[in-house]
Specification:
The protein is an alpha+beta fold. Helix content is 33%, strand content 19%.
Length: 162
């Protein structure tokens, strides 16, 4: 989907800087992108209002809060009908342990989840106590993340060519 928002070189610089550090003050951001404070603030507001900037979040250190086990789950469903998918998605979105959920193709699964828990006991509880109890779930294959090789929230921007 092509955005109807026109992004120039200053907007692109703003987006790059904010992806690296969303906590920058407006003055620091303006200094880094070569603008004065007022036009920089106006551009950020326009990028937010247009939906280009979706939100700004704080990323936590998972080890500092004892989230030591991350799993990727492939979920198979019994029926490929909108009602079944809606029920699954509605239920799965209420589980705080589920960090990501994707409806996928090209696998022997319908959904891919990323789950964060403190340990294997909690993983067992969420898998058998919640996920496999969702109506329509017929299979779950789990893989455990051993190490993060790339851990980024930054979107690629080079293709914008501003």
């Amino acid at each position: 989907m092509k955005t109807s928002v026109s992004i120039d070189r200053f907007d692109l610089k703003i987006l790059r800087e904010l992806q690296n550090n969303g906590d920058l003050s407006n003055q620091d951001l303006a200094d880094r992108v070569g603008l004065t404070a007022a036009p920089c603030s106006r551009r950020v507001r326009q990028l937010e209002e247009s939906g280009v900037i979706r939100d700004r979040v704080v990323r936590l250190n998972e080890r500092a809060i004892d989230l030591n086990l991350f799993a990727i789950l492939h979920i198979s469903m019994d029926k490929h009908i909108p009602e079944r998918f809606e029920e699954f998605e509605s239920t799965i979105s209420t589980l705080p342990e589920v960090m990501e959920c994707y409806l996928i193709t090209g696998h022997d699964a319908d959904y891919q989840l990323k789950v964060a828990v403190p340990d294997m006991d909690r993983y067992h509880d969420i898998l058998l106590g919640k996920i496999t109890r969702i109506r329509g779930v017929t299979g779950v294959k789990s893989a455990f993340i051993m190490r993060k090789v790339v851990d980024s929230t930054s979107m690629p921007l080079d293709y914008l060519g501003a």
